[in-house]
Design goal:
By secondary structure, the chain is mainly beta. Helix content is about 15%, strand content about 35%. Strands 1, 2, 3, 4, 5, 6, 7 and 8 form an 8-stranded mixed sheet that branches. It is globular. The protein starts with 8 loop residues before the first strand and ends in a 14-residue tail after the last helix.
Amino acid sequence: MTEHRTDPVVVVAGALCDQGRLLAARRSAPAELAGRWELPGGKLEPGESPEEALVRELREELGIETEVGARLPGEWPLKPGYVLRVWAARVRSGVPEPLEDHDELRWLARHELDSVDWLDQDRPAVAEAARLLPAAPEGGVRG
């Protein structure tokens, strides 16, 4: 009897937070995703832990070394056979730059998260990641 793999391919992403802001990365490839925003990361390779994969992907995509924290609750379907799992992370060294598959990065405060066009499949993950950010004061700052 042949065994069929039913486990989904895991795509790891980092909710990179710094100074109360979340890092968003704009896709430049593939064409059908170009111009939309995501949490940076990539596919888990055989033999890697999800945390190792995330450190590797963020190094390759952004040129930074990171410290991976706790996994955010939930997992979100991408295309058939793929799921997105997100971890809190912080930059240990380097300055993030768009190196692979991205052409722009933005640090977004909680009240700015809706200012970019997130990939549909990333929206629920971003909503979960927003919980890591401080809430903006209601109605802005008053004196």
